[in-house]
Structures are given as structure tokens and as C-alpha cells.
Automatic annotation (TrEMBL):
Active site: 268
Listed name of the protein: Beta-xylanase
Species of the source: Glycomyces rhizosphaerae
UniProt-listed PANTHER family: BETA-XYLANASE, GLYCOSYL HYDROLASE
Leader sequence segment: 1-34
Biased composition (Low complexity): 354-366
Keyword Acetylation attached: no
Every CBM2 domain range: 369-473
Amino acid sequence: MLLNRQRRRAVIAGAVTLATAALGIGLSTQFAGAQATTLRAAADAIGKDIGVAVDVNKLQNNAEYRNTVATEFNSLTAENAMKWDATEPQDGNYTFSQADTIVNFAEDNGQSVHGHTFVWHAQTPSWVQGLDATAMRTAMVDHINTVANRYEGRVDSWDVVNEVVSDNNGAMRDSFWLRTMGEGFITTAFQTARAADPNADLYINDYSIEGDNAKSDTIYRIAQGLKSQNILDGVGFQSHLILGQVPSTMEANLQRFVDLGLKVRITELDIRLNTPADANELAQQAEDYRRVTEICAELADCSGITVWGLRDNDSWVPGTFPGTGAALLFFEDYSKKPAYTAVLNALGGGGTGNPTTTPATSDPATTSPPPTGSGCTATLSVSSPWNTGATYSATVKANQNLNGWKVTWTWPGSERISNAWSVTGTLTGATVNGANESYNGTLAAGQSTTFGFNITKADGSTASVPTVTCTPA
């Protein structure tokens, strides 16, 4: 299947334009000249998926939407068009026009497809929910076989079951699936999907499992059982996050699933905040996106990231959580948010995108030079500046095995830290004396960890990048 993705992308890199014959689209832009100044080019360069959930109606009717989807992303997920109510609204009455539109678009533009989803307690027609155990199993098996067979070789991976664990201390969700068929419905779904398309990667997908908690523990237990039967390939972490609340245990939690021999994938990423958003919130959002992206980029077995929608006004968030939103990478007018630039940089790309906050008057992206000859080195860089402040990213690298680290520097001007993450200590005032948190202090020689912070700068001048001294704790 990896070969399929590479082959499709190689076709695009060689000559294919954004034209989508199935939709009659004739655009002139070519990927052949693309550099790593798009999300797509940066992700391709490191062998990761950068995906987006797409609305089939906008894909059909909005040229700028299509162009952005094709240019910026190498993977697509149908937001709704592959769910049960869209593909089999009545028993045995299948309709694939919307799903076909998305798959055809992906193929025409050299993109992979992550299928979503076979079995879910929501958006499943009422005729399924009222069946007895035998009839429900038959309906499930028929549905998975029919949909998977249609897209065999064209859809690279599937969310086979979705949201099967409740938010109540890791208990199984009290769904009609569980009440009628028992927990065995999960195994049946995966066995059926594996037989229907042996080459597709099969995922279990859920939300609020990014950190190490009771819910992720239950997913871990389920994953162990499915992996032992060779019917599970990966775990999908939806990652519908709240501003400033990326779990501190996210990297370690994903790693434990990788240690089972599974892939991990960020399947539905968005980061919501209270609206309207101000510059500080957009900067924090950018840092949150950067952190999640770096976790995936640095994990060899993280297959990729899918952002759950293109523009802020395409998002499901405001309709579900009133008063919040602005959760995605693009503003309504398709301009790029600071979060876009953060993701691009975390994927190894370059450029500043098109930030709407006012940039500093000179180039703020200078990185502080690390001192040499110490047990660790640390660097600072400005990732998102605005008129009266900035977001900084910091990296600590161990030159020897460390059980803790300390950093210090002195601000040359009016810069002062307003909030920080993944670092503790005396962070106020002109002189900063920081130290590791409990979860990021132990580093083997050659390993790195990151922290970050926002500053305010009263005089409005360009944010400086001081030299940082790092010492073992």
C-alpha cells in the first residue's frame, strides 16, 4: 500500500496538473515546481501524510476550495460521504456517488485516501439499530464487505470502528452495537475488513485518548487483543483539542502503542479556542499545532496527520461548542493562519505562510547560537511574532545522558514571559532560570526535547533571541 501512495505522488511530481477530469476542473498549477513551502511538499519530503477532511459539496462547487485541498494536502478523508448513512441509507440500497467523487479527486491529484468509517454508533441508519444480534451481524458484515470491496486498492487505510469507549472511566460505550452484539462486534468488524481488503491498513479510532488516561488504557487493551489476531494495524487519535491543552503525556502515550507494533495516526486534528480569537490565542494555537505535528513527525510509526476541515468556517466546532471555533489552519478567506506556518515548519518546510498578525520589522526567525562543550545545549527561535509580543520555540539537546536540565538567559530589552509550557522555574523578570518538567528531563545522549512560551514586549520593537546556557541538573 505504501508503494501505491508513492506511485501516485510520483505521477504528480512528474507532470500531472491539478486538473480533475471527473469534475471538469481545468487548473494550470503544477506540483512539479512545488518546493517545501506547502504542507504537501513538506510532508512528502519526510514520508508522512498531511490530510484534510473534505466536504464533497464544496469539493464539487468551489474552485478555490478544490485548489487548496489539492495543493496543500497529500491525503483526503471524507468528512461524511463514506459513513453508513451516506453509503447505505436503506438496507441493501447502496449509493456511492459522493464517496466516488472524493476518491476520484484523490486519484486525479495523486493523494491517498483514509477511509472513515465502517462502524460507528452515530450516523448509522435507524434500520440497522433495531435489528437483533444475528441480523445486525449480517448487516455489518455485508456493509463492510460491499464498501471495502468497492474501494479495494483505492482506499489506503480505514477507521474500522469509531468511538467505542465512553468518557466514563474507560468503560465501553453503551451503544446499540454493544447492547445487541456485545464487545465482540469490534472483533467481527476487523475480521471482516481484513478479509475484504487485506492490503488496507486498519485502524481503531477515538477521541480524548491522546494522553495516558483511563480511556486510552481501554483502547490499549482492545488494541492488544486485535493486534494478537493480526487484524489491527494502527490506532487513530482524533485530537479534537482545546487551546493550551495538548496532553503532556501525548508523546509517551503514542509511543506505547507503537511499542505494540502498531502505527499511530492523528486522524481528526483541530484546536478550538474562544471566539473571536486575539493574537495571543492564535499564537498559542500555533504552538499547540507545532507540538502535535512534531510528535508525529519525529515518530517513525506515525503515518500522518489529518486536519478536520479546511477553513475555520468549515469546522464542526462552532455548531457543537457554541462560543468556540477558529480551530483550523486557514481563515475563511483561505489565508494562512499562524498555525499553518507552525505545521509547515514542524514538517521541515520553510517560509512564513501568510500570517495575519503583523510581523516584526526585521527577520525574527534567527535562532540563538548554542554554547559548546556543555552537557546540553539549548536554542531559542521566534516562531510567531506580533506587534507587542511573540511565541518562542526552544529545543534542549542532550550531549550526555541527562536526568534533568536547567536553562538560563537574560532578556536584553523589555521582553517578559507571559505564559510557558513544558518548562518550570523562575520565568518572570529579565533573567530566566528554567528547568525541565517531570516528563521531559530524562534524555539519552543525542536526544532532544522542546518547550515554549509567549512574551509581551511593551516597546513594540523586534523580539530578540538571546543566547541560552544549558547545564545538567
